[in-house]
Amino acid sequence: MSPESDKVVALRRLLDERFPAAHRRASRGIPTGVPALDQVLSGGLHTGTLTEFVSEEASGGSQSSIGSLLLSTRLARQRVALIDAAGNFNLEGFDDDGLAHLVWVRCASLSECWRAADLVVRDPNYAVVVIDVRGWPERTLLRTRDSIWVRLQRAAEQAETAIVIQTTTPLVPNAARRVVFAQPLNGEALTQPRIALLGTIEVELQRLRVREGRENSA
Amino acid sequence: MFAVIQIPEFSLCALLRFQPMLRREPVGVLAGEGRRAVVLYVSPSARGVLPGMTAAQALAECPALQLVSPSLSAEREAGALLLAAAWTLSPRVEPSSSGTCTVDLSGVSLDGLPMQLQALRERLAAEDLPVRIGIGPNQILARYAVQTADPECWVSEPRAFLEKLPISLLELTPEEERLFRDLGLRTLGSITAFPRAALANRLGARGDELWARAAGEGNRPIQPAPFPVRFQAQVELEEPVETLEPLLFTVRRFCERLAVEVGQFGNGTARLALVLTLDDEKTYARQFDLPEPTASANVLFAVLENHLSALQTDAAIVALSLEVFPTRRLEQQEGLFDTGLKDAPMFYGTLGRLAAVVGTENVGTPRHGDTHRPDVIVLEPPAPAVPAHVLAAKPEPHGPLLRRLRPPVPATVELTEARPSFLVSSLGEGEVTVVRRPFWSNGEWWAPEPWAHEEWDVQIGTGLYRLRHGPEGWFVDGIYD
Questions:
Q1: pLDDT class of A102 with cuts at 50, 70, 90
Q2: CATH of domain B20-70
Q3: Strand runs (DSSP E) across B231-266, as ranges?
Q4: Where in chain B is the domain with CATH 3.30.1490.100?
Q5: CA of B422 vs chain A CAs: smallest distance (Å)
Q6: Count of A-B CB contacts under 8 Å
Q7: Is residue A31 predicted with pLDDT exceeding 70?
Q8: CA distance B480 to B81
Q9: How far is residue B245's CA from residue B228's CA, in Å, rounded to a whole number?
């Protein structure tokens, strides 16, 4: 390769590093397996962006949605990281093989959670990073610095990772998509087959921030 | 063809490489002991100080001068790095003296040699070891060339090259030097202009030898250094180390040298062994298995850095040893359906950093424990590749997933006809609607801590919960979500 070509390649690399959003690759959709969720997200989770799952109801179905996401990523053999701020993840409902693609990070505090998330989202080996901060009081969550979200967003863009943040209240100011699990499951859900149950989960797209920078609010 | 590679001011370079804080100071390296010690090398910032001065003279010229003794371990590391780099040119390398080696370039293509030499210089410069290289048809000419190299000198016409070289290159005794000066011989060219037989008559065999050396003649077989059998670096620290930074600095230097050594044979390493000797005469030893063989100093260093960042020892560290075990590097083509790691070193590096943040016991791929006791989880190191999903025959799952509360939330439960009817807990309170009858479970009755409890799935308001009742009382075990 000639020296001129080397310089052009080096310049492109430098520009890519400085301005990652300028030549972002097309976002891929990672289906969650929840019909309502995939519909409002136009095919599933989008790589390179932050998606916020807001579970205002204790039993809105967001954990089951994450379970469905784990199943669909397992079938596709995509690696998933779960940063569990309160250590609430439960293995019931999964067999060992169904979690072979999962890296579970149990955190003892929110600061640990953000530090762990900052490391994981920069690793291109993960297709999806789920950050579950439910279990922490809203007052504590709302004190999260904006710089954390900006760092997560920038890292997600560079690593082409889909990031899901599970919260109990709208929290992420720069989320590309915010989905609210507004409808609580009823008692009959406990005896329903899981597949049928996923079909009953209702979600509402509260925010859609598209790539070109336009912002729509629903 | 031969090449002589030399690290100028070797002792000083090797020392500054391991003690970078001295780079800003005027430094002089002393040779000898006591009052007879003289300055061997000085850094450029030591103004007025010249090699050969005594310590007192040097300090008089430059009061801020830091006088240090040569560091044998630093020189050993720098010498090993030089040798490893020289082996990238040819397998026949003779370490001539401190910081110098001679390379037999027989059979090496001269077309690609300039680029190889440039790569070698850049590689060593990156390790803070600037080198100069002389290339000539024989060892003597290459050795003369390296003295005038800046940074490279090729001898293509020996006669013209030797013409103006000073006679000091012949390493004369003081008497011989005086004699040549009296004879008016100041350059090698003037010696070879002198009849060889006349010089031999005057100085005997020594005269003949000097004439031959001045003419660039003579070629003795070189004694190639054997290839290393073990790839090991070790140092006894001059002062016990209690903080991470100086330790990491030394580790970084070791990784750079060992990576060059294992890499030069086309190998990598998949295992590292670190031994720290502590001030209380105990040792700390640890082996690291890498996901795939590598010859990258950065990868090796990242593994050690992650571990050392979280390591706390009972006493200061006085010695450090690092050994790498070479193995064949595999070049694999990615399979069409391969879902292995995109960047294996980064994956394991990230896991190491995560372990440093949350603890080793809190990172991994979860598996059910070998027991029926609820919520027993084992975290295992993640597999390098996600295996294909095994479709096992199993009952269809029902109901939403449970978010388990750890620890479970104590609750006060009011019973009506032996069924929960009202619940009070820190999560809330309210009328209880029983959704499912209790499930009883128990086990490990043979163990010191048997377990037995009943579980109720209930609805309180719009939330679905699992209650647990056992000898310790009532608890909210989790939330169905």
A1: very high
A2: 3.40.1170.60
A3: 231-241
A4: 231-330+342-352
A5: 17
A6: 182
A7: yes
A8: 61
A9: 29
What is the H or E stretch that residue B453 is in?
strand B451-460
Prior bond to B291 cis, omega within 30? no
Q: Mean pLDDT across chain A, nearest whole number? A: 86
- What's residue A211's pLDDT? 53
pLDDT band at A107 (very low <50, low <70, confident <90, very high): very high
> For B375-380, which contacts have Cβ atoms below 8 Å and span 24 or more sequence positions?
B375/A90, B375/A91, B375/B404, B375/B406, B377/A91, B379/A104
Positions of chain B with pLDDT under 50: none
Phi, psi dihedrals of residue A131, rounded to the nearest 5°: -110, 110
Contact A107 B358 (CB under 8 A): yes
Q: If you measure CA to CA, which chain B residue comes closest to A61?
A: B481
| Assigned architecture for domain B231-330+342-352 | 2-Layer Sandwich (3.30)
Classify B158-214 by CATH class.
mainly alpha
Q: How close B24 comes to chain A (CA, Å)?
A: 32
Angstrom distance (rounded) from CA B263 to CA B257: 10
pLDDT at A25: 56
DSSP-assigned letters across all residues of A46-79: ETTSEEEEE--STTSSHHHHHHHHHHHHHHTT--
Q: Give the mutation candidate from A54, A59, A180 for the B interface (greatest B CB count, under 10 A).
A: A59
Helix %, strand %, coil % for chain A, to 5? 35, 20, 45
Q: CA dist B231 to A204, B140, B226, B467, Å?
A: 61, 32, 13, 60
What pTM did the predictor assign? 0.63
Tell me the three state secondary structure of residue B41. Answer: strand
pLDDT given for residue A141 in this prediction: 92
The Cα–Cα gap between B161 and B149 comes to 12
pLDDT of the residue at B333: 56
Quote the tokens at residue B275.
């031994």
Residues forming CATH 1.10.150 domain(s) in chain B? 158-214
User: Residues A94, A70: contact at Cβ < 8 Å?
Assistant: yes
Half-sphere exposure of residue A161: CA atoms within 13 angstroms, side-chain side: 30
Residue position matching structure tokens 């996600």: B386
pLDDT at A1 > cutoff 60: no
Q: How far is A212 from chain B (nearest CA, A)?
A: 29
Angle, helices B244-264 vs B297-309, to 10°: value is 150
Instruction: Using the structure block, give the residue that is written with the tokens 């040819």.
Output: B90
Which residue, among B234, B12, B10, has the nearest Cα to B132 in the 3D structure?
Answer: B10
What CA–CA distances, in Å, run from B427 to B211, B348, B463?
Answer: 99, 39, 10
DSSP code of A89?
-
